Amino acid sequence: MDEEYDAIVLGTGLKECILSGMLSVSGKKVLHIDRNKYYGGESASITPLEDLFSRFNAPKPDETYGRGRDWNVDLIPKFLMAHGQLVKLLIHTGVTRYLEFKSVEGSYVYNKSGKISKVPVDEKEAFSSDLMGLFEKRRFKNFLVYVQDFKEDDPKTWKDMNPNVTTMKTVYDKFGLDPNTQDFTGHALALYRDDDYLNLPSLTTIKRIKLYSDSLARYGKSPYLYPMYGLGELPQGFARLSAIYGGTYMLDKPVDELVMENGHVIGVRSGKEMARCKQVYCDASYVPDKARKTGQVIRCICLMSHPVPGTNDALSTQIIIPQKQVGRKSDIYVSLVSYTHQVAAKNWFVAMVSTTVETDQPENEIQHGLKLLGPIQQKFIWIQDYYEPIDDGLASGIFISKSYDATTHFETTCLDVLDIFRRGTGEDFDFSKVKHDLGDEDQ
Questions:
Q1: Which value, to the nearest 10 degrees, does the dihedral of the CA atoms of residues 389, 393, 398, 400 take?
Q2: H/E segment holding residue 46
Q3: How far is residue 300's CA from residue 292's CA, in Å, rounded to a whole number?
Q4: Which helix (H) or strand (E) holds 119?
Q5: Residue 230 and residue 207: Cα distance in Å, rounded?
Q6: Are strands 349-356 and 398-401 parallel, antiparallel or unpaired?
Q7: Omega of the bond leading into 288 within 30 degrees of 0 (cis)
Q8: In terms of DSSP bridges, do strands 264-270 and 257-261 run parallel, antiparallel, or are they unpaired?
Q9: Member of which family (predicted)?
């Protein structure tokens, strides 16, 4: 360990493994250390099923659940956007040779009447959607055409609305979209978690809707992908990526101290050994004095023997419950995966309901999501504190990831990772640095 590194990454959570891969691709000499024996940290996949039950102090599962080793249950499931940057990174680098993805079959949104509807993303779906009346469908169709035709570098496509200045609220109003249509567009298409975006320039929102639409075009059923055998495979995929570019990994290695000099990190000590470095990247658990708790997330893992009612028997799906539809400040998220993803025994399903905690009775806050699921054989509830770094890390050289939020998609995770990379290196990640030839055999 007595070498010097450009960066030391602590922990093998999903964000840390992605950062390790990105830093290695960018030519940094990286050492990656985890005190655990396994990859994934708090975003690990739990197998066999007996380990999941014992983790939550539940009696052992009976034989109706099938073989325990057939289960790989994510503690924090997330779907990947099919056209998103990190999927592109996986494809370009050939890391996909270690991973197999399956398209998520459905994407739904909840409305205040208590029913769920498929998220409409093109003209055909808009006209068949039960979310809107006939005249609203026409207005929404015109809005979708505007988004699809929009080009950031071509002012002729802006419809006299400068996207760098005009707010999203103004854009919605120009197309005459009613509050409910604005709600599912912002939360189920652009994937915002609150309505602050309405008063910001529209460019980012338009790009997010285009990303959703482009991702949907890749596979047709939904814009989302999910790895076979669960998310536990993903950190290992990025770890291999880091190794291809010269990164070094050490699991089951205690981290005793971040060594500082004049307020800046110069190394990491484990026992009597010390590895010197210029920067450290880690989650808040490694440096609790440099992070603050800003909230809590409640998650409920549900084991079921059936798909979610009202989804055409989809074997995987995401449902977003926009906060306004149920009188909340934050959205509720529901995800479902199944035995077809090799994460459960034959004919079994794994659902997750999650949200940001707003009251002193968190379990009541996820009831709208739980009601959508139908009968639940077994559920596990836990509440996690949400941490954010207290500063940008530039002075200390210590760059800290945020905790995982309640979303069941990967986009906020991506944004955090790209932001950390930008702060740490002073530049945006350059996808052109990736050696495309590594993946040629898989194209």
A1: 30
A2: strand 45-46
A3: 24
A4: none
A5: 28
A6: unpaired
A7: no
A8: antiparallel
A9: Belongs to the Rab GDI family.
**Per-residue pLDDT tens for 324-351?**
999 999 999 999 999 999 999 999 999 9
* For the chain, domain boundaries: 4-42+232-292+387-435, 57-105+294-386, 119-219
Task: Give the strand pairing for 349-356 and 332-338.
Answer: antiparallel
Tokens of 13: 């959570």
Cβ 316 vs Cβ 307: under 8 Å: no
pTM given for the model: 0.91
CATH architecture of 4-42+232-292+387-435: 3-Layer(bba) Sandwich (3.50)
As beta bridge partners, residue 333 has 320, 354
Question: φ, ψ for residue 168 (rounded to 5)?
Answer: -65, -35
- CATH of the domain spanning 57-105+294-386, picked from 3.40.50.300, 1.20.58.100, 3.90.180.10, 3.30.519.10: 3.30.519.10
119-219 falls under which CATH superfamily? Guanine Nucleotide Dissociation Inhibitor, domain 1 (1.10.405.10)
Which two tokens mark 369?
A: 């999501």
Record the tokens describing residue 321, joined without a space.
Answer: 């419950």
